[in-house]
Amino acid sequence: MITFVLERCLRLVLVLLAITCVSFLFLHLIPGDPIAIRLGEHASPQQIAFLTHEYGLDQPWWVQLAKYLGALVHGDLGTSIADTQPVAQTLATHFPATVELTFGAMLVAVLVGIPVGVYAAVRQRSFADAFTMSAVLLGVSIPVFWLGWMLVYLLAVLPARAGFDLFPISGRISLLYDIPAHTHLIVIDALLAGNGRAALDALWHLVLPAITLGTIPLAIVAKITRGSMLDVLASDYVRTARAKGLSERRVVVRHALRNALVPIITVLGLQTGLLLGGAVLTESVFAWPGVGRLAFDAISNRDMPVINGCVLLFATVFVVVNTVVDVLYALANPRIRYAG
Questions:
Q1: What are the φ and ψ backbone dihedral angles of 86, each rounded to 5 degrees?
Q2: How many whole angstroms separate alpha carbon 197 and alpha carbon 144?
Q3: What is the DSSP letter of 32?
Q4: Is the separation of the CB atoms in 315 and 16 below 8 Å?
Q5: How far apart (Å, rounded) are the C-alpha atoms in residues 235 and 131?
Q6: Is 47 among the domain residues?
């Protein structure tokens, strides 16, 4: 197991190095001058040349890459061209919002997806099975941005026109509350401040974005749960448990579901990594101040240090989560043998 973990860690470092290099190269191939965008159309050539030299953008891309990698070793992600703030500090401010949204989405996926998948497996080939699997297919097919706008319109805008403040349209918390930022996880910060109303308000702001972002992983989790449960329910030990006279609920929950969890854990880990690095559209629709929205704004401004930082953060989260899933998978199923 130690050899396996070390091998995965080495692969993690190599993958992140490759992603950083490729991302850096692609950004330099994209047309557009970030300095000109920052200074505006009335900037003089002298001003543009000065800032270009100041940020080292007049050097060959391989020289810039070497300097960037050298700075990374010391934990320096550079400085934003748009607002001159350290990229690491900006990411640290925005990432907790993405973490909060991601875990809200995964909570929706787990609390709904697993029971739906189990129910569909138990009711195999019934109308309930066909209906739930059709809903799963629909959940995977609906574009996230369209679903987000529909939820906002149907559950926030229309009720507001009728005089009902049902759901907030955007943001993480109402302007009424001023919560000190200790962890930047606003629900936790509100609880630490002893403000239960603010914590509930923050959770209420999280509902629509979490449902929007959690729809696709919910559908995937339900599909994987159903397939895994069908395999386990057809096994010999489940038939033996039924033959002993155990209740159907006990057979399904304690025997079948417990042994069907390995692929479910795997897909949950993969989906968590994807959501942490792919909440751009949801954060844009709900004006959620996370890394996804930060990346969108940075791409619009061609702020290369921030874009590089976001890509590196997304890649790190995804690769680390995959590595953790691999380790948990090996621990959960010791019969698996990983070849070199």
A1: -60, 135
A2: 30
A3: -
A4: yes
A5: 25
A6: no
Give whole-number Cα distances, 224 to 107, 146, 272, 319, 325, in Å. Answer: 16, 25, 15, 22, 16
Instruction: Please state the rounded mean pLDDT for residues 241-269.
Output: 80
Structure tokens at 189: 């910060």
Phi then psi for residue 303, to 5 deg, are -85, 90
Single-letter residue type at 287: A
Which helix (H) or strand (E) segment holds residue 1: the answer is none
The whole model's pTM is what? 0.82
| Domain-embedded: residue 261 | yes
For the beta carbon of residue 38, count every other beta carbon within 10 angstroms: 19
Please count the structural domains in the chain.
Answer: 1
Q: Would 311 be classed as within a structural domain? A: no
Residue 125's region, left for phi above 0, alpha for psi from -120 to 50, else beta, is left
Q: Using one digit for the tens of pLDDT, what is the confidence trace for 209-251? A: 999 999 989 999 999 999 988 888 888 877 887 787 777 778 8
Question: How far is 299 from 125, CA to CA, in rounded Å?
Answer: 48
Token pair 């025997």 is found at 255
Nearest in space to 85 (alpha carbons), one of 251, 277, 298: 298
Q: In CATH, what number is assigned to the domain containing residue 262? A: 1.10.3720.10
**Helices 2-29, 304-332: crossing angle, 10 deg rounding:** 160
Q: What number of CA atoms fall less than 13 Å from residue 315's CA on the CB side?
A: 19
Letter string b/e over residues 255-282, b meaning 16 or more CB atoms within 10 A of that residue's CB: bbbebbeeebebbbbbbbbbbbbbbbbb
Residue 78 lies inside a defined structural domain of this protein: no
Residue 278 is given by DSSP the state -
| Residue 86, strand partner residues | 79
